[in-house]
Amino acid sequence: MIPAEFLVVFFGLISAASWGAGDFSGGFASKKANVYSVVLITQAVGVFLLAGSAWVLEEQMPPLNSMVWGVLAGIFISIALLALYRGLSLGKMGFVAPVSAVMAASVPVVYGAFYEGLPAVHQMAGFAIALIAVWLIAGDSHGVKLQRKDLYLPFVAGAGFGLFFVTIDLVSETAVLWPLTAARIAAVGVMLVFAALSGPMEMPSRSVLPVILLAGIFDTGGNTFYALASQAGRLDIASITSSLYPAGTVLLAWFILKEKLAPRQWLGVASALVAIVMISF
């Protein structure tokens, strides 16, 4: 029988890889299109993918309270994505995504300590190394000093993702796809409100639309595998492994956009691998 800890880490890492690719695609698209339209389309893609998958797999509709938690999760993640994509479009991907991930991982770890108890000592050490790894990956290769205003968007994004982690954990015991569908529908509603308040919204050009659709597919995959990870075991393990998504974003920025990585960032990637091993056992 496969150990629960292995399944949590396995699903969490797939979630991280998918989210990393989705954030890279969404941040890249936000440089060339209105951020509201980017987030709105990515969330709408998720509605169709998740609802269609739930129908094909004949997943039973969960209780009403689970759907309510799903709606709340959708509100949190829509605000998080808006802040994240806005930050990615304004600054370097190698900074914004990792800082938001540190905050995102901290919220469910604190929650899990109160409601699930403390994990094993070696796993807690792995948590610490994972957070350090994410921060190392955030290092800027040009030595640019950060100002307080530079942290606002990553902080809001991380808090939103962290609260999403917690609320999805509350619904994934009974179902996965239908609560995530409710979350996406709520996210679309929130984005429509933000878009209406911001004034006329231009639709993205045909050239950037495929990138946005790709971001929606990857983001949906990240949400689904995170829900499976939290369903398989402890919330803190699921959230920490899933929060390693900046590694994917940074590596893609390095490979595609030719953003240079400092030695400390490569050290962060290596530290993340060590943390994964420690958390898995």
Strand-helix topology:
Layout: H1 4-30, H2 35-56, H3 64-90, H4 93-115, H5 121-137, H6 152-169, H7 177-198, H8 209-232, H9 235-242, H10 245-256, H11 263-280
Helix pairs in contact: 1-3, 1-8, 1-9, 1-10, 2-3, 2-7, 2-8, 3-4, 3-6, 3-7, 4-5, 4-6, 4-9, 4-10, 5-11, 8-9
Brief characterization of the structure:
The protein has 281 residues and is an all-alpha fold. The chain has helices at 4-30, 35-56, 64-90, 93-115, 121-137, 152-169, 177-198, 209-232, 235-242, 245-256, 263-280.
Question: Which features would summarize this protein structure in a list?
Answer:
11 helices; mainly alpha; 281 residues
Low-confidence stretches: none
Amino-to-carboxy terminus distance: 15 Å
How many strands, what sense, and barrel or not for the largest sheet?
none
- By DSSP, the count of extended strands is 0
User: How many distinct domains?
Assistant: 1
Sheet-strand content, in percent, reads: under 5%
Radius of gyration: 18 Å
Count of DSSP-assigned helices: 11
> Class by helix and strand content?
mainly alpha
Mean pLDDT: 81
The helix content is over 70%
* Overall morphology: globular
**Helix-strand pattern, N to C?**
HHHHHHHHHHH
